[in-house]
Amino acid sequence: MKYCQYIVIAVFILGMFGCGTKVAMVKQESSRSYTIKGKTYTPLKIVSPGHFQKGVASWYGPGFHGKKTSSGEVYDMHGLTAAHNILPLNTVVKVTNLANHREVVVRINDRGPFVDDRVIDLSLTAAHKLGMVGPGTVPVQVAVIGAKDSGQTTRLASNEVKPQLVKAPNPFYTQAGPRLLALTRN
Questions:
Q1: pLDDT confidence tier of residue 167, bands split at 50, 70 and 90
Q2: pTM to 2 decimal places
Q3: What is the CATH number of the domain that holds 131?
């Protein structure tokens, strides 16, 4: 009879701890509502992988480069980051251009966009990867992968998060190593 008790306890422990799948949920401590241009936005407190949204993506670059983002970090148009108006900051998402099916993985570090039906503002590098710099906006699907630094996001994004030099559409800017150089026309 003692063996049966041990088996029951072992099965119970395995069921509670050993067989579960960890799902990386993104939590945000502060999710105060804010109003921009008369519209109120309430950031989500928690999102899980699988949350997705369709809409229009735009990109932002030289005019914001070097300025602080909503997360407090400095915006780098050559990084793989984005602005979203309600996803928790540090959420990692996969953005798919629905016109050409290109994909990019970015981290939400800023708030926006606050124009029409747009759902995400991408960095210049992310926009290049999606092939959307020229048109400026494209239809996309935004899918939550997880939180920054979760093992799940590292595995899913490892092939996509590589530094890449990109030519800015503004002829006055280019990337040279880790610094942005301002160029002048002759």
A1: very low
A2: 0.67
A3: 2.40.40.10
Domain membership of residue 15 (yes or no) is: no
Specify the DSSP element, H or E, that contains 9. helix 2-13
CA distance 146 to 87: 11
* Type of residue numbered 33: S
Residue 31 within any structural domain of the chain? yes
Using alpha carbons, select from 52, 69, 143 the residue that is nearest to residue 106: 143
> CB-based burial of residue 121 (10 Å sphere; 0-12 exposed, 13-18 middle, 19+ buried)?
buried
**Measured distance CA(59)–CA(47) in Å, rounded:** 23
Digit-coded pLDDT (tens) for 36-60: 889 999 999 888 898 899 999 999 9
Q: Domains in the chain: how many in total?
A: 1
Nearest to 49 by CA among 170, 166, 168, 156: 156
- 144 with 52: CB under 8 angstroms? yes
5 domain residue, yes or no: no
Instruction: Identify whether 13 is part of a domain.
Output: no
Distances (CA, A) of 31 to 86, 142, 148: 9, 20, 18
Note down the domain range covering 135: 22-182
The pLDDT of 176-180, averaged and rounded, is 37
Distance CA 60, CA 127 (A): 9
